[in-house]
Write a structure and sequence with these properties.
globular; 70% helix; transmembrane helix; two-stranded antiparallel sheet; metal-binding; 12 helices; mainly alpha; PNAcMuramoyl-5peptid_Trfase_CS
Length: 329
């Protein structure tokens, strides 16, 4: 049933994506706008975006069908809910940018409020069924009680935005999330949560189908509708499996991407105040752009998108394997 779900999701996404791209182009909708300083990205201006709509519809439809068939637990429905709601938030954000030509889409406050509402509903469902506010920290359970709500909200919002930041070059975020989902698939299997494993398999299939069109040179981008949903899904899975801490390792790529932006902004403001001019730690953030502009060395040659992809995918694989070794060996 797991393989069936994955194959169906892959096939439906492969079928649906060309239809979406052609419809998008025929409607002459303004595509992805490039506001970055990476020269090679300027050629991508006008590329269709919001492709995440297709793989989300596929994953949600199949996920709900299989959840009903298998009489799934609350965990599966909770994850599907986050996938839907955070995807809807991303859709609204993209819609305003693409159709209404509002460059910032939803403003930060609007987006945060919607994410908080979704996170609160997920928390209430989680507490209602788990009956505890236990947080797993590197294998040790800590009773947070009512404070657990703040962790859940932080985790969901933080990682949804982290994956959103990672979605900056062709294929990077889609395969990075596939790698993360494979690791959580193993954990779900070990915990005998087969209904959740089916949903994970469905999303993997849908993302692999999307990657066919998102690999360099990308014919479509997933948009916020895809990236916000995927980040929220990963956070929800780690909570549902009661292995929250694992996302720090399995999702290290997203953590690095987010940390690079935060450090860059903080350091720039600090040096501007101290020296009268802002200075930078990285050539450009998020971190994948730093690699594009010069690799890991101080004065290195620029990396191609494929080089950046394989480096960060490789890091994701290593950290996922390390997590599984820590858990089960």
């Amino acid at each position: 049933m797991i393989l069936m779900g994955s194959f169906l999701a892959f096939a439906l996404t492969i079928i649906g994506m060309p239809i979406f791209i052609k419809t998008y182009q025929k409607a002459k909708i303004g595509g992805q706008q490039m506001h970055e300083d990476v020269k090679q990205h300027q050629a991508k201006a006008g590329t269709p975006t919001m492709g995440g709509t297709v793989f989300l519809l596929v994953a949600l439809s199949l996920g709900l069908i299989f959840a009903l068939i298998t009489q799934a637990s609350w965990s599966t429905y909770g994850i599907l809910f986050i996938l839907f709601l955070y995807g809807l938030i991303g859709f609204l954000d993209d819609f305003l940018k693409v159709f209404k030509q509002i460059n910032e889409g939803l403003n930060p406050k609007q987006k945060l409020v919607l994410q908080l509402v979704g996170g609160l509903i997920f928390y209430l469902a989680h507490i209602n069924h788990s009956g505890s506010g236990l947080l797993n920290v590197f294998g040790y359970d800590i009773q947070l009680g009512w404070l657990y709500i703040f962790f859940v909200l932080f985790w969901l919002i933080g990682f949804s935005n982290a994956v959103n930041l990672t979605d900056g070059i062709d294929g990077l975020s889609s395969i990075s999330v596939v790698i993360s989902l494979l690791a959580y698939g193993v954990i779900a299997y070990k915990q005998s949560q087969l209904d959740l494993l089916i949903v994970i398999g469905i999303m993997i299939g849908a993302l692999l189908g999307f990657f066919v069109f998102n690999k360099k040179p990308a014919k479509v981008f997933m948009g916020d509708v895809g990236s916000l949903a995927l980040g929220g899904m990963l956070a929800a899975i780690s909570i549902a499996l009661h292995q929250e801490w694992t996302l720090l390792l399995i999702g290290l790529v997203y953590v690095i991407e987010t940390a690079s932006v935060m450090l860059q902004v903080a350091y720039f403001k600090h040096t501007k105040k101290k020296y009268g001019e802002g200075r930078r730690i990285f050539r450009m953030t998020p971190f994948h752009h730093h690699l594009e502009l010069g690799g890991l060395s101080g004065n290195g040659r620029p990396w191609t998108e494929w080089q950046v992809d394989f480096f960060l995918w490789g890091l994701g694989v290593v950290m996922s394997l390390l997590t599984l070794v820590i858990l089960y060996l």
